[in-house]
Amino acid sequence: MADVDLLNRDPNNLNQHIQTNFEDVLAEPDGVRSADCVWIYSNKCFSNGKSCCYIFLSGLCGIFLALFWGCEFACISFEQIWCATPALRMFSIYAIYVQKCVGTYLSCYLGPLCETCGLCFSKIRVEKST
CA 69 to CA 14: how far, in whole Å? Predict the structure, then answer.
């Protein structure tokens, strides 16, 4: 089992779009200010409330959801390895015969027809008279 990095828990930056620090969510522009004590305690309430709620929810659901997602990705891997990839390979093998049939049809029937039309229409001349 791989070691878990307890410091950097998002090494691939998968969740950069979820910025949930106080400064990323709440901001007072110039000209609109609450009292300093309100801003300080709002920051503490936001941060501590978010932290407690996240710890509670991840403790309650995290292990079960990790098991669910592990099984889900195992099923996807199984399906890709044992079903989709062989089916695509089989399709590409049979597609060679379709390609040969279509190519033969085009070269035997459509090719001479297009060549004949080209020869017939190549003698047409268009002149502009004023």
Answer: 16
Q: Could you read off the pLDDT of 63-72 as tens digits, one per residue?
A: 999 999 999 9
pTM of the model: 0.61
Residues 113 and 119: their CA atoms lie apart, in Å, by: 10
Helix or strand holding residue 99 (H, E): helix 85-105
Q: State both tokens at 58.
A: 């991840």
Within 10 Å of residue 22's Cβ, how many Cβ atoms?
15
Closest CA to 44 of 36, 62, 17: 36
